[in-house]
């Protein structure tokens, strides 16, 4: 009988504890699928004394460096998160001949190229399905199933925490803070939830998705990123009035001159668009490609057990490769497409602002848009005379304007000019719009 495959697990938190449970409880099933038994030989943790039901304390160690330095490991699963020591631990594991599985998008968004090259040079696997959109198979479809096609755009909801918060604010009228606390309690949020609410987690995933989709390397700092902390109750109400829902979107597309636009921002999504109905911690991703056309992937984007499902899919795949003595190389990026500046990106925008109530003001506002080649699609006016303070400020009406497709740089000039005009209030709000 062949020897078991030796597995080390780094981290036994929300995801790691679920991965440990599956490896320890589902041994015979996993063995049948792999053709070899998996043996969990060590679990790297921060605190030995924490309560870990079902886990033999003899497996635990706080010395992660020594664990990954073992020469007899077949697979190292990294679920501690963060950049260091995760990066060094993975590179050490690879250098010692282990294949690696990680869910660490923060690390992969910057170091995927280096880790891939190290794995390729050593002839071992690097798999990371759980790093993007939790349980949803999206890394493998982009890396394998669609690699014979040409992808033109990827757009989706890739952060469960923010989708949970926005959904709760809209459907239950919850406060931002209460909804965030629930998302943390349910195990969706990052160790530091700023990464979720400021869009950094989604931006890391967008970098990974863009790199995979367009066969290039995209770094996290090349992703335009705006989170949901600036989304106001007024924005939510304005979206509702326009028949839209606010979602945090990650978007990656190719420009006409073959560069990559990659961005994360809240957007008003038309209620008729399937992304508008994605609720709770669910994620969804649309892919457009030349031959396949439109594809949509939907499922749980966060949470211990759903994420462990994606990790275990990678573990079984990597274990099968080890059993056969092979590794499925990702291959270096085959294109060197550059990332285009956000100013060159195009979107529809919803711009809202207070105006004084005088003859000709609507025309003057429309003129500012027109002067910069920005075409208007919908114009709404609501009367604010009854609003507290409206008379004192002199701004008695609020305009809401939805544009046709507009370059970011042109819209920025329009907003600047509106803010400078004495007939427009200083609170000029801008939301991007999708699917309208
Ligand atoms: N929770 C989710 O829904 C989810 C989904 C997809 C991906 N991820 C990713 O999975 C990884 C783990 O996430 P999590 O939610 O399980 O986080 P977590 O904070 O619950 O677990 C991480 C564990 O690693 C331990 N740890 C951290 N640094 C350590 C070190 N240097 N030495 C020993 N132990 C250390 C922590 O004590 C903690 O128990 C992260 O990269 C995260 O981004 C999480
Ligand atoms: N914090 C992340 C976990 C999944 O990557 C989220 O909320 O989507
Ligand atoms: Na995934």
From TrEMBL:
Swiss-Prot/TrEMBL catalytic activity: L-homoserine + NADP(+) = L-aspartate 4-semialdehyde + NADPH + H(+); L-homoserine + NAD(+) = L-aspartate 4-semialdehyde + NADH + H(+)
This protein's pathway: Amino-acid biosynthesis; L-methionine biosynthesis via de novo pathway; L-homoserine from L-aspartate: step 3/3; Amino-acid biosynthesis; L-threonine biosynthesis; L-threonine from L-aspartate: step 3/5
Root EC class: oxidoreductase
Sequence positions that bind NADPH: 105
Coiled coil residues, start to end: none
Pfam families on file: ACT (PF01842), Homoserine_dh (PF00742), NAD_binding_3 (PF03447)
Keyword Amino-acid biosynthesis: yes
GO BP term (any one): threonine biosynthetic process
Keywords: Amino-acid biosynthesis, Methionine biosynthesis, NADP, Oxidoreductase, Sodium, Threonine biosynthesis
Keyword Oxidoreductase: yes
Active-site residues (renumbered): 205 (proton donor)
Protein name in the entry: Homoserine dehydrogenase
Source species of the chain: Tessaracoccus lapidicaptus
Lineage: Bacteria, Bacillati, Actinomycetota, Actinomycetes, Propionibacteriales
